[in-house]
Amino acid sequence: MTEITAPKSPVTSAEFADEIREQLKYSQGVTAEQATAADVYVAAAKAVRNHLADAWFTTQADTVNGNTKAVGYLSAEFLMGKQLENALLNAGLTEQFDEAVKSLGFQPKDIVDAEYEPGLGNGGLGRLAACFIDSLASLGVPAFGYGIQYKYGIFKQKFDEDGKQVETPDYWLNNEEPWGHIDYNRDQKVSFGGEVVEEDGKKVWKPAWSVRAVPVDYLVPGYKSQRVNTLRLWTAKSYDEFDLLAFNKSEYMDAVKPQVKAENISKILYPEDSTKVGKELRLEQQYFFVSASLHDAIRVFYPGQDKPDLTTFPNKITFQLNDTHPVIGIPELMRILIDEYGYDWDTAWGVTQKTFNYTCHTLLPEALEVWPASLIGELLPRHLEIIEKINEQFEAELKAKGVDEATAKDMAIYTGDSVRMAYLATYGGSHVNGVAELHSQLLKDVTLKNFSDAYPDKFTNVTNGVTPRRFVKLANPGLSDLITEGLGTDKWVSDLEMLEGLVPLAQDDEFVKKFAAVKAANKHAFVGFAKDHYGLDIDENTMFNTMVKRLHEYKRQSLKILAVISKYAAIKNGTVSADDILPRTVFFGAKAAPGYYLAKMTIQLINNVSKVVNNDPDVKGKLAVHMLPNYNIEMAQNLIPATELDEQISQAGKEASGTGNMKFALNGALTVGTLDGANVEIRERVGAENFFLFGMTVEEVDKLYADGYNPAKYYEADPRLKQAIDLVAGGTFSNGDRNAYAPLVSDWLTKDWFMTLADFSAYADIQAEIEKLYRDPLEWNRKAVLNVANSGFFSSDRSIEDYLERIWHTGPLA
Ligand code: 26Q
């Protein structure tokens, strides 16, 4: 944690080197001669941060004093990735940094690598939040990201000798963390438990215990916007460091109990990325950051006012609820307005409904949070009362709308024993959006159908996007230079639809060859990365085929590994002639939730297929499989630019959007995928002829399910599938042990909830088409160029512009 010192104007590399030396000397206490790469990293981070300070202060002042409504992005996760390169890019200091560290005797890459990646998110939802705050700042929109500074981020993943996932804690704050600025003077009190009593005819909440929420501020610099927004992550501290009475009795453990209880709240990120059970600590976390954030926004926008006019609150800031995780904010704002500021119910409701909007990120019913009412009642008794009252008002409203009783019952926010957070969010806010066209449509038609019927105007779509700064400009400098050369400008970095200007160049063989050379160089670089990080020897003259994402049954890593096994068997059996084999290297990267049994078994299977295949001389040079450990943002930035074929093979109707799919298309990989999530829109834009489509549609899935799905039938019907499953069942990937994967095999043959077996034949068949095209490098790369050229829509800048227009109704600072 550092203080912000004097702001700096643009500097030369020599001056920047002096600034680094100064930080080394006065802040780290080492001389330039003693400094290690880790020291220089911290010093450079602090130096670049100082350069951003001025713009940060002006942005904050303009946010409060201007008359542009701000955005508050409430998210339990922000998966930011490493910060240094991004901060340098946005501060315009990349070249100065490179020269400066060289003059200090270091390689820029070693300094950048010294940063430890913060893992404050699980996957797509957390990374989306990070892309969105980057785009908000780059567009000059005043915004706050609000979340939790977990002490332990997503676990680090290793594999044991059996290929099983082993989780180790991610204590990311073990070393100095130069980006976060802890601000003890802007703390908030967050209370829990106790009871509600009536005093003078008013409800008064008497909480049982409180924690101190202390903000840690991260600068969010915009690209070429001169704006620096704030990511405010709360950390929980105890008010009573020690209970001295207990301590005097030498009961040390008891003495620190309140501290432990308080600090537990921000201790760990939950590693599940879908939910089944409501855990008390998770609700504590949610309420903790949301309550602190709402109070913080009131403090920021009504400074020093005891009796602020909070009816203007929705004109000051609009809060986006990133999934159901922050939805407790709806009753909390009601409580603040009524209990803390004395507003009547109707006024409070008007303000609350105008303040919030809700983004849904799922279609899996089990991932919509439902809290036991008893738990809410115990932890937040006043909120439960408010929720009950919201529900009564809601029922009356539905009745007035003529909604029949049975439907109204299905729509209940509060059922008597539980609270449905997605329903509360839908009723309690102004807008609800899904994250891709297909997903938003399915929300309206299925998941939230009754709500869409009753409140059609609330529903809209905003298709996800990814930031081109991190995922093209920084991750793929070779392609970035080529794009700039092709377009004659680098303005595409902040206006990604300009990539369309590359469409004619796809017909220019020289340009396509240059693209192919960039891809080859990225593959070469990844081979080096994989050697350094994992000790792997990878053949760069093979097709790089990648599937990276969380491990989930619906995402169907099983489909991919079964196809790999089938291919392996075909080579072994000689079913394919040596000449017909297209050499491939298949990369997987995936973390499984620690308690997700089948997901973890799938990881184990992939690891053991990898062991068998990679050590089999019969397939050497033809097929290799690697399960790369600990998939994270850094790996994504290295692997995506090197990938030629990307896998987006979820069961249709299950992946809300996907954002990896966008990153791959933008980096010139071709996609093999189903009509699911944003794949649909990617295919529409890049052209059906430049996308490998296979598998059932949503309608076909529904029909097959309704007709009665029997996976064993598909196992019997396709000998390739049968052979692959038989090899797994027969112990080929478990040293002959036929029981090792029995639960997985039995699930495939008897349940197969996501219809992996039904889509297998189509998936195996399309491989021939893929391989045929790959044998014609010019045509393959022409299609890859067209993927890049037509993916500009998938910039998170465009997503944010859609939110501004459809939901937030605000814009950049003047
Ligand atoms: C909730 C309560 C308790 C414990 C964990 C959770 C929890 C945590 C994370 C539930 C869900 C998540 C994350 C969900 C997620 O990442 N969804 C993905 O969001 C992306 C961005 O919109 C989409 O592209 C993906 O399709 C979607 O799966």
From TrEMBL:
It comes from the Bacteria. Its EC number is 2.4.1.1. The modification N6-(pyridoxal phosphate)lysine is found at residue 663. It is an enzyme of class 2 (transferase). One of its GO terms (biological process) is glycogen catabolic process. It catalyses: [(1->4)-alpha-D-glucosyl](n) + phosphate = [(1->4)-alpha-D-glucosyl](n-1) + alpha-D-glucose 1-phosphate. Its cofactor is pyridoxal 5'-phosphate. The keyword ATP-binding does not apply. One of its GO terms (molecular function) is glycogen phosphorylase activity. One of its GO terms (cellular component) is cytoplasm. Keywords: Carbohydrate metabolism, Glycosyltransferase, Pyridoxal phosphate, Transferase. InterPro entries: Glycg_phsphrylas, Glyco_trans_35, Pyridoxal_P_attach_site. PANTHER family: GLYCOGEN PHOSPHORYLASE, GLYCOGEN PHOSPHORYLASE, LIVER FORM. Belongs to the glycogen phosphorylase family. NCBIfam families: P_ylase (TIGR02093). Allosteric enzyme that catalyzes the rate-limiting step in glycogen catabolism, the phosphorolytic cleavage of glycogen to produce glucose-1-phosphate, and plays a central role in maintaining cellular and organismal glucose homeostasis. Phosphorylase is an important allosteric enzyme in carbohydrate metabolism. Enzymes from different sources differ in their regulatory mechanisms and in their natural substrates. However, all known phosphorylases share catalytic and structural properties. This is Alpha-1,4 glucan phosphorylase. It comes from Bifidobacterium aerophilum. The lineage of its organism: Bacteria, Bacillati, Actinomycetota, Actinomycetes, Bifidobacteriales. The gene is glgP.
